[in-house]
Amino acid sequence: MTASYVIIGDGIAGSSAAETVREDAPDADVTVITDEGEALYNRILIKEFAKGKLPAAPMSIHQPDWYDERDIDLRLNTFVTDIDTDAHTVDTHEGEQFDYDKLLLATGGTPVQLPVPNSDAEGIHHFWTFEDARAIAERAETADSGVVVGAGLLGIDFAAICGAQDVEAHYLMRGENWWRYALSDDGAEIIHDALEDNNVTPVFDSGVDHFETDDAGHVSAAVTPDGDRYDCEFAGVAIGLDFNLELLQNTEIELDDGVVVDEHMQTSVEDVYAAGDLTRYYDTILDEYAQNGSWGSAKEQGSIAGENMVADGEEATFRWVSSYSITHFDFPFLSFGHPTLGDDHAEAKFSDTEWRRVAFKDGKIVGGVLIGDLAPQSKYKKLIREERVVADQKDVLMREEVDLDELAPAAEQ
Ligand SMILES: Cc1cc2nc3c(=O)[nH]c(=O)nc-3n(C[C@H](O)[C@H](O)[C@H](O)COP(=O)(O)OP(=O)(O)OC[C@H]3O[C@@H](n4cnc5c(N)ncnc54)[C@H](O)[C@@H]3O)c2cc1C
Fold it and tell me: In ligand 1, which atom is closest to the CA atom of 292?
């Protein structure tokens, strides 16, 4: 009998899995179901589209004929409402049912709305899909004033969009630094200066108590808990993701702020795998469960899941050091691994736009942030993969030019 593979989600995780399954199982039935109206596109690039820098065309990665050529049944605009893991079936909002032998969950997340009055007003935007990017671009093109909330990697995209679209913006941050869990004062200062250069004013120890609206229900201001009021015709909110798990409500699949999977992307329920942003996966480098919201990681998890779904065993293992870069400013920025974890760190500043920080756990590098000079990234990543204890050699690691040969040999440590 022909094996049947059903993949929910056509983001980079689901799509990579579909490609791998097709390569490894040429005769199988493969179905990809997505509630979006378009096939896989480059989610990383949609911010450039919203900035007005890129036309729509390069965003698309797969046209529908990509699926036709591979005999993959792509279902657009189709929302999966329920899964029965005993019967091995998947139900959609239109009442259609799919049988599966192996199922992949690759449904990612949905941006969280601020839990304050008027947070759903016209002009307040969240950012995840190409459709969101079109709406943001349209609004930002006409707005003169803006507010950005969420001092992390997606919030700064909103800030950059305001800068590029000539929207004079205030960036309301909770603490005293942008991305305070990964950057110190010295590192964050470089980002704050770059924001100012883009006509975006950071406002520290701040937040939103409520939004005000005009008579038409359109956002007109953000009011902070201290009562400060910032006029805005445009607001961008990026305070995190809720994983799309509603479809699992009738299953026994283990959840822990995400779908728990082992290093082979297998969930706690037989024949069900998960990949991408929504997983809490066993990280074989950290030797503990971890999460990662990045394109490269989601792509690799999808491929590993696809391979293992077909192999029907624990063949391929996910072992990965992720990267996430920001290209909004005159200097490069890269975070790698798990920069917000760890029990120790080292950092160094080399100039007004060059800074780096490395996080250690149990003496081993687990992640870091590089600003201005990305040259050491491959060396730090190598040390992460080797799980080498190096925290006692911070002086070598923080030299402007890192030379791994200057580290004490592993055996002498
Ligand atoms: C604006 C923006 C900028 C980013 N920039 C970077 C960057 O520079 N570098 C980087 O590494 N990462 C970046 N990311 C993060 C990266 O895009 C994600 O980590 C990655 O796309 C996750 O892929 P995924 O396949 O796990 O999930 P998603 O891409 O979220 O795909 C999940 C899909 O499943 C669909 N779905 C959900 N529920 C259902 C359901 N019940 N039925 C059917 N379909 C469903 C969703 O609509 C979606 O299409 C960025 C993200 C955004 C939004």
Answer: 19
The rounded Cα 26 to chain-centroid distance in angstroms is: 31
CA of 43 to the centre of ligand 1 (A): 7
Indicate the Cα dihedral angle 160, 50, 114, 153, nearest 10°.
Answer: -50
Cα–Cα distance for residue pair 11/94, rounded to 1 Å: 21
133 CA distance to ligand 1 centroid (A)? 13
| Same-domain status, 364 and 376 | yes
Q: How does DSSP assign 157-171, residue by residue? A: HHHHHHHHTT-EEEE
Q: What is the CATH number of the domain that holds 213?
A: 3.50.50.60
> Is 26 found in the same domain as 91?
yes
pLDDT of residue 388: 97
Whether 81 and 174 map to the same domain: the answer is no
Residue with CA closest to ligand 1 atom 12:
294
Question: How many Å apart are CA 262 and CA 305, to the nearest integer?
Answer: 11
- Its domain, for residue 136, covers 113-237
- Between the CA of residue 272 and those of 38, 75, 260, 265, what are the distances in Å? 25, 20, 11, 9
User: What residues contact 32, with CB distance under 8 A and at least 6 apart?
Assistant: 7, 9, 10, 14, 15, 18, 67, 72, 73, 74, 75
Q: Summarize pLDDT for 330-357 with one digit per residue, the tens.
A: 999 999 999 999 999 999 999 999 999 9
Counting every residue, how long is the chain? Answer: 413
Tens digits of residue pLDDT in 150-174: 999 999 999 999 999 999 999 999 9
Residue at a domain's end among 205, 237, 269: 237
Atom of ligand 1 nearest to the CA of 244: 38
Those residues of the chain that have pLDDT short of 70 are: 57, 312-314, 410-413
Helical H segments across 338-411, by residue range: 377-386, 394-397
Asked if residue 161 has its Cβ within 6 Å of ligand 1, the reply is no
Question: Does 121 share its domain with 161?
Answer: yes
Residue 349 lies in a domain: yes
Per-residue model confidence (pLDDT) at position 413: 47
**Measured between alpha carbons, how far is 407 from 392 in angstroms, rounded to an integer?**
10
Claim to verify: residue 124 and residue 227 sit in the same structural domain: yes
Tokens of 366: 């687990």
